[in-house]
Design goal:
Helix content is 81%, strand content 0%. With 453 residues, it is mainly alpha-helical.
């Protein structure tokens, strides 16, 4: 077994699948970054309010990621067998669950906006801004959930370019409307954070329209139609729930972790919350390439195991680890190198927030090295290879036994914000030791499909 595979198909698939996903991530980042830059001109309270108002979106994103991951992991193995009938049934189940999740959280956001913001921060001005934002942006949740489920369906059959198309449409709609509605251009009143929320809502609607057209009318590979939403198979539904629940639960654990992060950092005040928003945006930029490659590895892993080529998969796994170790090191150097320039782009935030943001960015320049190795390897190999429960258990142990207790203790003892932030990110390094052992045991390769007939 070679450490570096000579199979050119692996590298070709990795690049062709990763590039559209990475570009999609870049465009999504640019949309969010444009939001942040435009809102930052309104001051710390507005930036913090939007950040806190997006905490439900973070939760939904994690939940939808679990549903989408279930679709990709199971359906990619059926794609290895070219069983599109069962894939359509899995997609129908995923879309319906995703839509239900979106509707439920839209209702929660509409009914309890200020109460939700108060969970994370006590600053009255931030609460006021966050409430205004959440009241409008929550209407976008159902559109977002359905879009992500359909994009995952396409990824499972090795169609990744549609996600890029969707993101490009969102980029133009969101940035244009942000400019018009936040600042009051073309005859519209200046709406501030409300304008940012409405722009997000309209862009989510546009995304759903684009992906629905592609899947239902243009795509011929999967052949999914509106009538397929009525498909139902008890065995496949059972599999979706059996393998999907640990994925969804794992994402929920991670979303709880993110919300607790906001609560803990919220105790330091608006300046630190603003700094965390800036630093996490920089981290998102660094994760674009990592996430694109991880998604590609996940599709390759599912397809290869579904086709029964486990020995070849071992060779792929060795090569994948080398690639992501290098990617992690390069990402750390990138974050460190551009952190001062990046923070400087936020001219509207206070000097205190800018200073804190630079410190937090330095922390990320270290932890991103671990993220670059363990996150894509545990997702792209272990989770996508079928050992879903392991990743869920691993994440739960680190979040509730290491990350949150250490951060809470640091905050309670009055440690500087960057120390608490480091505690919140420490698992990214520690998980590397677990990942090395688990991946190289090769006991994570499991066929999740059912035999035809």
């Amino acid at each position: 077994m070679r450490i570096i595979t000579r199979d050119k198909t692996y590298y070709k698939s990795l690049v062709t699948l990763a590039i559209p996903v990475a570009l999609q991530g870049l465009i999504t980042f640019l949309v969010n970054f444009a939001d942040n830059l435009m809102v930052n001109s309104l001051g710390d309270a507005a930036v913090s309010g939007v950040y806190m108002g997006n905490q439900i979106q973070t939760f939904i994103q994690m939940f939808t990621s679990g549903i989408g991951g279930s679709i990709v992991i199971i359906a990619a193995q059926y794609w290895g067998k070219r069983d599109t009938e069962r894939i359509r049934c899995l997609v129908a189940t995923g879309v319906k669950i995703a839509a239900l999740v979106g509707v439920i959280f839209s209702a929660i956001g509409l009914l309890f906006p200020s109460q939700i913001i108060r969970i994370f921060i006590n600053d009255p001005e931030v609460i006021a801004q966050g409430t205004i934002y959440l009241k409008w942006v929550c209407l976008s949740y159902a559109f977002f959930c359905v879009t992500q489920a359909l994009i995952s369906a396409m990824r499972s059959v090795e169609v990744t370019k549609v996600g890029l198309i969707v993101s490009i449409s969102s980029l133009f709609v969101n940035i244009s409307l942000n400019y018009v509605l936040i600042f009051g251009k073309l005859g519209f009143p200046a709406m501030g954070v409300k304008g940012a929320a409405i722009a997000t809502l309209v862009s989510r609607m546009a995304e759903t329209a684009v992906i629905a057209y592609y899947v239902l009318i243009y795509d011929k590979r999967l052949g999914f139609g509106i009538k397929d939403l009525l498909l139902s198979d008890k065995q496949l539904t059972h599999d979706f729930i059996k393998y999907g629940l640990p994925l969804v639960a794992g994402e929920i654990v991670w979303s709880v972790n993110m919300m607790c992060n906001s609560k803990i950092l919220g105790g330091y005040g608006a300046a630190v919350v603003t700094a965390a928003s800036v630093a996490n945006t920089l981290q998102t930029l660094a994760l674009i390439t990592i996430s694109g490659l991880a998604s590609a590895v996940g599709i390759i892993t599912g397809k290869t195991i579904g086709a029964g080529k486990k020995e070849l998969m071992k060779e792929y796994a060795m090569t994948t680890q080398v690639i992501f170790l290098c990617v992690g090191l390069l990402s750390g150097a990138l974050v460190f190198g551009i952190s001062k320039f990046f923070v400087g782009l936020y001219t509207g935030i206070s000097a205190d927030a800018a200073a804190q943001a630079l410190l937090l960015a330095r922390v990320i320049s270290v932890t991103i090295i671990g993220t670059g190795y363990q996150m894509p390897c545990l997702f792209g190999l272990v989770k996508s290879g079928g050992d879903i429960h392991f990743v869920f258990k691993n994440d739960s142990i680190f979040v509730f036994c290491v990350v949150l207790p250490s951060a809470i203790l640091a905050s309670y003892l009055g440690a500087p914000a960057w120390v608490t932030f480091a505690c919140l990110k420490c698992d990214q390094i520690l998980k590397c030791f677990v990942a090395v052992v688990k991946i190289n045991k090769f006991n994570w390769m499991k066929d999740l499909t059912r035999k035809a007939g």
